[in-house]
Amino acid sequence: MALEFTDQTAREAIESGKPVVIDFWATWCGPCIKLGPVVEELAEKYEGKVVIGKLNIDDNDEIASENRVRNIPTVLFFKDGELKERSVGLVKLSDLEAKLASIL
User: Fold this and answer.
1) Residue 55 falls in the annotated catalytic set
2) 68 tagged catalytic
3) Could you read off the pLDDT tens digit of each residue along the chain, which spans 104 residues?
4) HSE of 76 in the Cβ direction (CA atoms, 13 Å)?
5) How many CA within 13 A on the CB side of residue 101?
6) Annotated catalytic residue within 20, 22, 29, 72
């Protein structure tokens, strides 16, 4: 199951150095709602290998601003505390897995 990140918990996860995937979304964003189950499936598939979660940009905007998230949904992939990959828009599970493979 995907975690529900806040700016603080997202920052802690990123700084841990582990592979981290964050889905930036909002409740009013139709494509974000459609991407939600895809992110959940990714979280289940990679449980124990990658920290995967969702961050609502209406409630938490620091991490989004720091990483220049301008459109949602945006999924960011971090490793060793650094942004490594970015996916913008509604995408398929296979697209997210391809980007995730590059940080594993």
Assistant:
1) no
2) no
3) 999 999 999 999 999 999 999 999 999 999 999 999 999 999 999 999 999 999 999 999 999 999 999 999 999 999 999 999 999 999 999 999 999 999 99
4) 25
5) 6
6) 29
Q: What is the pLDDT of residue 55?
A: 98
Residue 80 in tokens: 């060793």
**What pLDDT does residue 11 have?**
97
In DSSP terms, which residues pair with 25 in a beta bridge?
A: 56
Q: Do the beta carbons of residue 24 and residue 74 sit within 8 Å?
A: yes
For residue 27 the two structure tokens come to: 């409740």
Per annotation, catalytic residue among 32, 55, 57, 75? 32
What are the sequence ranges of the domains in the chain? 3-96
Top CATH class, 3-96: alpha beta
At 92, phi and psi to the nearest 5?
-85, 160
